[in-house]
Amino acid sequence: MKPKVLAIIPARGGSKRIKRKNIKPFLGQEIIAYPIKAILESGVVNRLVVSTDDKEIACAAKKFGADVPFMRSAQNADDFATTFDVVEEVITQLDEKYDYVYCVYPTSVFVTSDLIRDALTALNTNPSATSIVTCVAYSNPIQRSLSCKDGYLQSNYPEFYNTRSQDLSKNYSDAGQLYLFKPDVVLQCKRLITDKCLPLELDEIRTQDIDSEVDWALAELKYSYMVN
User: Fold this and answer.
1) φ, ψ dihedrals at 122, nearest 5°
2) Phi/psi zone of residue 20: left (φ > 0), alpha (ψ -120 to 50 degrees), beta?
3) d(CA 126, CA 147)
4) Cα–Cα nearest to 182, from 192, 172, 173
5) Whose CA is closest to 61, among 77, 39, 83?
6) What is the dihedral of CA 182, 183, 185, 188, to 10 degrees?
7) Looking at residue 79, what is its pLDDT?
8) Which of 219, 220, 224, 41 is closest to 116 using CA atoms?
9) Is residue 209 left, alpha or beta, with left meaning phi > 0 and alpha meaning psi from -120 to 50?
10) What is each CA distance from 186 to 22, 153, 175, in whole angstroms?
């Protein structure tokens, strides 16, 4: 039987480093339009909800086809609320039963409908897994990382100092683009990356944190390169 799937886009209005980030034009279109379009075109999501405290963001979300059934609470609209807090609020407010829940950030311009479908297929066909998260491999082995102590560089992992790169284990960082999970498990453990989380690895060209104007410019360059 086809699973029932909810998608949540958390889009707060009070972005500090990039003003009005979640509806700022990205290559000519409000950035939140990109993940909304990808989710709707995937064909696997039953309902797409945008959680926001901002009326302008709510209007933009509805314009592109998302649902805003209620405004985010003041408690979860400040600088200290976590993504889990927002996801929990939406799930409990809706009071609807879903087999899987996506969380996709409003600046996730590199999320595609294919990626969304691939994530669901991977998680739905692995009965022991409870979540799947986009990630990107560190370009340099973290076992070669350095820190500074008393003004001098030192190896964080001296036991691996002379180990060949190809012999070191691969490590990942959270790409911050797409999370898919079984809601009951996440509500219990109170985090989106569960104990049995599958990696959905992305190339570096398909991921970019957008926390500054430089990040924004890099994301536009990467997106243009990827599309063209």
Assistant:
1) -65, -45
2) left
3) 39
4) 192
5) 39
6) 170
7) 86
8) 41
9) beta
10) 25, 40, 19
pLDDT at site 54: 97
- Phi then psi for 9, rounded to 5 degrees? -115, 110
pLDDT single digits (tens) 38-88: 999 999 999 999 999 999 999 999 999 999 999 999 999 988 999 999 999
Beta bridge partners of 179: 103, 133
Q: At what angle do helices 33-42 and 113-124 cross, to 10 degrees?
A: 50
pTM: 0.95
Question: What would the mean pLDDT of 133-140 be, rounded to a whole number?
Answer: 95
Q: What digits encode the pLDDT tens for the residues 188-213?
A: 999 999 999 999 999 999 999 999 99
User: Shortest CA distance to 32 belongs to which of 16, 51, 9, 14?
Assistant: 9
In 3-state terms, what secondary structure has residue 152?
A: strand
Q: List the structure tokens of 148.
A: 């500074």
- Looking up tokens 């279109």 gives 29
Nearest to 181 by CA among 205, 197, 165: 197
Which residues, in sequence order, are CB contacts of 140 under 8 Å at separation 6+? none
Q: Which residues on adjacent β-strands are paired with residue 201?
A: 135
